[in-house]
Amino acid sequence: METTMVFMVSSILVVLLSSSANALSVRSLSSSVSTPAPAPAPDYVNLTHLLSVAGPYHTFLKYLEGTDVIQTFQNQVDNTKQGITIFAPKDQSFASLKKPPLTNLTNEQLRSLLQFHALPQYYSLADFKNLSQSNPVTTFAGGQYTLNFTYSSGTINIGSGWTNAKVSSSVHSTDPVAVYQVDKVLIPEAIFGNPPPPSPPSPAAPAPDIAPGSSAGSPGPVGDEPSPSASSASSYRIVTWSIFSYFLLLEVSGGLILFL
Ligand SMILES: *[C@@H]1O[C@H](CO)[C@@H](O)[C@H](O)[C@H]1NC(C)=O
Ligand SMILES: *[C@@H]1O[C@H](CO)[C@@H](O)[C@H](O)[C@H]1NC(C)=O
Ligand SMILES: *[C@@H]1O[C@H](CO)[C@@H](O)[C@H](O)[C@H]1NC(C)=O
Ligand SMILES: *[C@@H]1O[C@H](CO)[C@@H](O)[C@H](O)[C@H]1NC(C)=O
Q1: For 109, which of 8, 19, 122, 214 is 20 to 30 Å away at the CA?
Q2: 45 C-alpha to center of ligand 1: Å?
Q3: Phi/psi of residue 42, each to 5°?
């Protein structure tokens, strides 16, 4: 009789535990489902406005406006399905650019150099993994104006022969417009010819033999890789516990039936 009581009490306890765990898991699941707010319908993107408020891109914008390339880019946004991806160097990158001077370029060359900073299609950051399989990639400037992309553990490098730049942040990325900040002005070989051989030993470039996409298990650099969200991890634990307690409940009530 006493043993029966123990079983009943413990089975009630298990039922309570299990239902509260279920309530918890439902709550945390639904909250983790609703966290990525549904993307609102893409607003009209005014590139001039975006670049003037988004960061220190005033030199880039001044060049884009001076050559009317900003209008070419805006037309691509407004009138195509492909959209656009723009690589915006900061003012500081223009200021520190010494090797090939931009001052002696013809207007046509300057236009090409600016269009070299864009791709005539929208690419999310994740798309660069695939894009890096298609090197060399033709830029908005067309023809010989190509860039090579490498993608390793979420880091995107952009090579032009002259330049080994890195995507340093995402300014805007909603189809059809992506604007990414790059840490250098991109210098096309199509204008400046082959780059001079590097005199000092160049700082270790990202090894080209790292297979892109070997993210799982590889000892990647400690970087800005997003870690799996804590909320999904904890809801996983709660679900596991609630399944566990369900089986415990089955076992206990099975034992109870046997006992009775
Ligand atoms: C885009 O933004 C610029 C700067 O804010 C403004 O001068 C221009 O009128 C805008 N163009 C359109 C089409 O809204
Ligand atoms: C730029 O052009 C001027 C004259 O057109 C010339 O004197 C000067 O050396 C050029 N500078 C460079 C860096 O090519
Ligand atoms: C990957 O790139 C190729 C072109 O190089 C394209 O045909 C294919 O659709 C892309 N795949 C994805 C998943 O974006
Ligand atoms: C770009 O990639 C292509 C193909 O892998 C290669 O032939 C070319 O030399 C690369 N160019 C630069 C500037 O790295």
Answers
A1: 122
A2: 10
A3: -55, 125
Check whether 17 has a pLDDT greater than 80.
no
- For residues 109 and 136, give the distance between their C-alpha atoms in angstroms, rounded to a whole number: 20
Task: Please indicate whether residue 124, judged by its CB atom, sits closer than 6 Å to ligand 3.
Answer: no
Q: How many angstroms separate the alpha carbon of residue 149 from the centre of ligand 4?
A: 9
* Ligand 1 nearest atom to the CA of residue 44, by list position: 14
* Helix axis angle, 69-79 to 107-115, nearest 10°: 40
> Which of 70, 71, 45, 63 has the alpha carbon at shortest distance from 186?
63
pLDDT band, very low/low/confident/very high, at 43 (cuts 50, 70, 90)? confident
CA 15/CA 23 separation, integer angstroms: 12
**Is any ligand 4 atom within 6 A of the Cβ of residue 136?**
yes
- Residue 106 Cα to ligand 2 midpoint, Å, equals 12
E strands present in 32-110: 84-89
Pick the residue whose CA is nearest to atom 6 on ligand 4: 136
- Which ligand has an atom closest to residue 101 CA? 2
Answer whether 198's CB lies under 8 Å from 161's CB.
Answer: no
What's the pTM? 0.66
Predicted pLDDT of residue 15: 45
- For residues 119 and 100, give the distance between their C-alpha atoms in angstroms, rounded to a whole number: 23
H or E element, residue 169: strand 164-174
Question: What are 119's strand-pairing partners?
Answer: 85
Higher pLDDT, 183 or 258: 183
d(CA 159, ligand 4 centre) in Å: 8
For residue 212, the number of C-alpha atoms closer than 13 Å in the C-beta half-sphere is 18
